[in-house]
Design goal:
Length: about 375
């Protein structure tokens, strides 16, 4: 902390006493003060001949007065120049105290620690000239206070600089990590990836037979394109008791492909494929009413044993996690049913029914994708 103005004034009043004491060596204190009052505004004349001690004294007094006036006006740089010029003419140690005071005031007001260091240098010069004494003791105290203040500021600057350096380093490391993550993700997109698939679809065919499909499998995916394979189970429920399909089928293999507009099929995508399955258990029949093509114009009912289906789906994916996507699907399916030639029911006989039997269904549902 810097000393308050009142303390500084008391110190400098002592410094001025030192200056007056030095001047007593060349004249009485009264004559010094009288000359100072008379010549404070007298400009220093430049003469070619060397100045006499009396002339130097007179010029120093004038410069000292000008410096004091500039100091009270807060013109610190100009005041320092006047005090230094006076010291060159008349090297009284007290003038170094005034130089230190001007630098100290300027440095304190401007928070300029370089000027405070110059103040310390000026005060130290006084101590070199006057190693002992009451004024010297006070000046040493002031030097210690200024050095502590300068040291604290230096430590603060270094701490801020270290923090700024660390912040820049952290920012650089973060940018590098982000760039590495982006690069790794780009490389990951281009490489083949394994994906688990699962889905549930529900819909109806043209005879309003309800269909429910559960499927699961996997994909080999390259960024926006994939090959897929599944197995599943399909359940058919005849809504109209007079016609439709009542059965269950196990899909042994379903193969297909898909293409999306974005990585991991987030957003729109299209998918297509075909499957082969077997009907199992009982019932596994299809009933037709007044079907001219299949039943010769009448009603018929027959068992089925195998099926092939094709599908074309449109979907829209949503990112669930960084490794999974959930999609909404709408799918058009075409079924080809094989009539069981060994069936014991049928009107007409199975051999007289047109083959293959076909059905078209519209399905909607959800699909789940998990990248391994």
């Amino acid at each position: 902390m810097l000393k308050p103005a009142s303390s500084r004034n008391s110190i400098f009043s002592l410094a001025f006493t030192s200056l007056a004491g030095a001047l007593t060596l060349v004249g009485a204190l009264g004559s010094f003060q009288s000359a100072m009052a008379q010549d404070a505004e007298t400009p220093v004349a430049e003469e070619e001949a060397p100045m006499t001690p009396e002339e130097k004294q007179k010029a120093a007094i004038a410069l000292f007065g000008e410096g004091q006036k500039l100091l009270t006006e807060a013109s610190y740089a100009e005041a320092v120049a006047k005090f230094e010029e006076a010291f060159e003419l008349f090297p009284d140690p007290g003038l170094k105290v005034k130089v230190g005071e001007a630098y100290q005031r300027d440095g304190t007001e401007q928070r300029d620690y370089d000027k405070l260091r110059k103040a310390v240098e000026a005060y130290q010069k006084y101590v070199e000239l006057v190693p002992e004494g009451e004024i010297t003791t006070k000046i040493l105290e002031r030097i210690n206070q200024l050095e502590e203040s300068i040291q604290a500021e230096q430590e603060r600057i270094e701490r801020v600089a270290d923090e700024a350096t660390q912040a820049k380093l952290d920012d650089k490391l973060a940018r590098e990590a982000e760039e590495e993550a982006i690069l790794a993700k780009e490389q990951e997109k281009k490489s083949m990836q394994k994906v688990l698939l699962g889905g549930i679809l529900a819909g109806a065919d043209q005879q309003l037979s309800g269909i429910l499909r559960f499927s699961g499998g996997g994909m080999l995916s390259w960024e926006k394109f994939a090959l897929e394979a599944r197995v599943g189970i399909d359940g058919f429920l005849r809504v109209d008791k007079e016609q439709g399909v009542q059965a269950r089928s196990f899909t042994l293999i379903d193969i297909g492909a898909r293409y999306g507009t974005q990585y991991r099929y987030i957003g729109p995508f299209v998918s297509g494929g075909a499957s082969f399955g077997l009907f199992s258990g009982s019932p596994r029949e299809r009933t037709l009413v007044s079907d001219d093509d299949s039943c010769g114009g009448g009603d018929c009912s027959f068992d089925m044993d195998k099926n092939i289906s094709t599908r074309l789906a449109f979907g829209y994916g949503f990112e669930a996690t960084d490794k999974s996507t959930v999609a909404l699907r709408i799918e058009a399916q075409t079924w080809f049913f094989s009539v069981d030639s060994e069936q014991s029911i049928g009107n007409p006989n199975a051999n007289d029914i047109s083959k293959p039997q076909t059905a078209v269904a519209i399905m909607v549902g959800l699909e789940f994708m998990r990248w391994l």
